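Same chain as my last thread, 350 residues:
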Amino acid sequence: MHFLSHLAVLNLAMLAFAHPGEEEHRHDRRAELNIREFKVAAKRGLSACSEKLQRRDFHNRAAERRAAKVDSYRRHNGLRARDTNTTADTSHLSSANYTSGTPESTIFASNGTCILNPEGETGPYWVKGELIRSDLREEQPGVPITIEGQFVDVETCEPIVGLYWDIWNCNSTGVYSGLVAMGNGNSDDESNMNSTFLRGIQQTDDEGVVTFDTVFPGHYSGRATHIHMIAHLNATLLSNNTLSGGTVPHVGQVFWDQDLINDVEATYPYNTNTIAITENVDDRVFSTETEDTTSDPVLEYVYLGSNLSDGLFAWVTIAVNTSATYDPNYSFVWTSDGSIAESGGELTVN
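reply #2:
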């Protein structure tokens, strides 16, 4: 595709971070413009997949799969579907125009949330070598969420089978597991080096689908609420249930509707965090992901029950250029003895 020529000439510098304890890096305006140019071109490339995806019944199967998962979670937990006729909250997506009358069959069929940028930011808190697992909660308090990600090859318009989806986010009070750093909770608590909460990796199935059980992330200074992700291809599963080798064709972050964030932050224990909330519109990463592009990094979601405490089911479709290769930066590595401080990687195109 034509847009791949843009990717070949990208020479991306590390973008600035506002993570706690992270040194500010110099912004590279040219790199950011290249990112946006890539995403606009990639969107055109993905739109060319529409007819093929329709022939494969891609969207209908996705709707049936998501509806079945939600029904299963509700029955397992004895939950009743939320009465949307009594609520004003029905957007499910920052740019959608759903109303209280929008049927769930329509909502679940939507693949409007599509991440097209494989050149995002990892942040300082990726712990390399995390465990392969689907349940990341480890009894962390907060709003329970289940996230489904479906990966599509933007060049072939086919689901990507065998890709490993690596995700991590902070807990309800803004703390990441597996590290000790200024601004990341109690910097004197060295036991956090041995924690693994809200981190994990799963492999896509024959539909390119991965599902995680996790907790809605809290917030910390200077960043909007978000979830980090890395995609791994051709990696080797080791006997200790971690990955080795392979390539990284995608690095990015996903976000949530601001109204939903505000509702979550009003509940316990999120409301014990006294750090000021950075909204999506003020978040530099969110702006870079969305400004002057049609890329949408905001998760779609539905309530599993009548209240937030019952949990959410959220989903995202991620279009990946499998020909791309990146070397994401990291500051910690998971070992049999817990996390150790070790730095490496950089966000350049190989």
